[in-house]
Design brief:
single chain; about 130 residues; mainly alpha; 2 domains
Length: about 130
């Protein structure tokens, strides 16, 4: 349930959880009642803590396009495969940039997340055929 997920993100974000801040920012940008200023504040807080996807989300917000952002898992089933594919490609770009500048544990997390997204996309595209 999206409302329940949002409540949990709210609680975790208020305790400084970077993933929750990022996910709540995405919910606030893509949900039924968008709140761009608050989403931007949350993404800024997460980015300040080193959350790479939040940094990319801030760039997208600045460019007027946050549609690429990966929605929280509770909403992932509502996302079209084309949007998820675009998200995976942008994540791949971020990963390669990150690897080029400073390989480390953060890059490993990105690789695991990217592989999961690509596997999910492959499954979805097979179902669409």
């Amino acid at each position: 349930d999206a409302a329940e997920a949002k409540d949990w993100y709210e609680k975790s974000a208020s305790q400084g959880n970077l993933d929750a801040q990022f996910n709540l920012a995405v919910v606030l940008l893509t949900g039924a009642a968008p709140d761009r200023p608050r989403a931007q504040r949350l993404a800024t807080a997460a980015a300040a803590g080193g959350h790479a996807k939040a940094e990319a989300l801030l760039e997208a917000i600045a460019n007027g396009d946050a549609a690429w952002a990966t929605p929280p898992e509770s909403e992932a089933t509502r996302v079209q495969p084309q949007q998820r594919f675009a998200t995976a490609l942008l994540d791949a770009q971020m990963l390669l940039q990150d690897l080029a500048s400073s390989p480390g544990p953060r890059a490993k997390v990105f690789v695991q997340d990217l592989l999961r997204q690509l596997e999910d996309l492959q499954t979805d595209f097979r179902r669409c055929k």
